[in-house]
Amino acid sequence: MTALDVPAPTAAAEVLDLSPAPGRAPAGRMLLAQGRLELALLLRNGEQVLLALVIPALLLAVGSEVHVVDLAAGVRRVDAVTPGVLALAAMSIAFTGQAIATGFERRYGVLKRLGSTPLPRWGLLGGKTLAVLAVEALQLVVLGGLGLALGWHPHGDPLSVLALLVVGTAAFTALALLLAGTLRAEATLAAANLVWVLLLLAGGVVVPLSDYPSGAADAVRLLPLAALAEGLRDVLEHGRVVPWRDLLTLGAWAAGAGALAGRWFRWE
């Protein structure tokens, strides 16, 4: 074949542009990709699954059947325990899990390396938030299903439950970033686990705050886990529409911890 026999380019070849086009992907695509990555990392981590699903499920199964303390007359144990366990599960993944994971990512330089990619910092935080919300949806299915199997009778407005969980998740995530961004990874690990245990014992998870001494109940209800647990209990057990007091308490924690995390969080 000579040079004169080379066929003329077709119409498809004329419109095909193979030139490089470097640039950042659309923001929505980056956010979803980072969210999928964070979710996969969470679900592959056995400790995170244990903390977010297995321990709350065991606590629900035992707490709804075993007589720990006397409850008020007419209160069914499973109806009182299930909202508290849902609140604990949300804190486990949004606070304890995120604090530990982010602390070690900072120590091993993962956050520093991600900072050199086109992914903006808000994209990293948004991806973590999407992963947490996805795990919380899974928690609602698993723990809610287990509660129903144990005889739980939920009431109330689903939108109020959603509002409490979203604001509570924002508060717990902000506290996790504040802890992980200011302490060393080992100190973050110890502090996050200590807070989890203390709030499990005294945060109104298994025992409603109505069974606490009056002065202690008012003080404990200012804690984010107790506010979320009591808010969910008011809606799911007593059928109240919006527990504004608990919602405002969680919003104050989210705003305060978010402002401090934005000021003091260190990426390296």
From TrEMBL:
Protein origin, superkingdom: Bacteria
Keyword list, A-Z: Antibiotic resistance, Membrane, Transmembrane, Transmembrane helix
Example GO biological process: response to antibiotic
ABC-2 type transporter transmembrane domain mapped to chain residues: 85-260
Compartments where found: Membrane
Topology class, membrane: Multi-pass membrane protein
InterPro entries: ABC2_TM (IPR013525), ABC_2_transport (IPR000412), Nod_factor_ABC_transporter (IPR051784)
Transmembrane as UniProt keyword: yes
MF annotations from Gene Ontology: ABC-type transporter activity
Any one GO CC term of the record: ATP-binding cassette (ABC) transporter complex
Transmembrane segments: 49-69, 81-104, 130-153, 159-180, 187-207
Pfam families: ABC2_membrane_3
PANTHER family xrefs: NODULATION PROTEIN J
The protein's name in its UniProt record: ABC-2 type transport system permease protein
The species this protein was found in: Motilibacter rhizosphaerae
Lineage: Bacteria, Bacillati, Actinomycetota, Actinomycetes, Motilibacterales
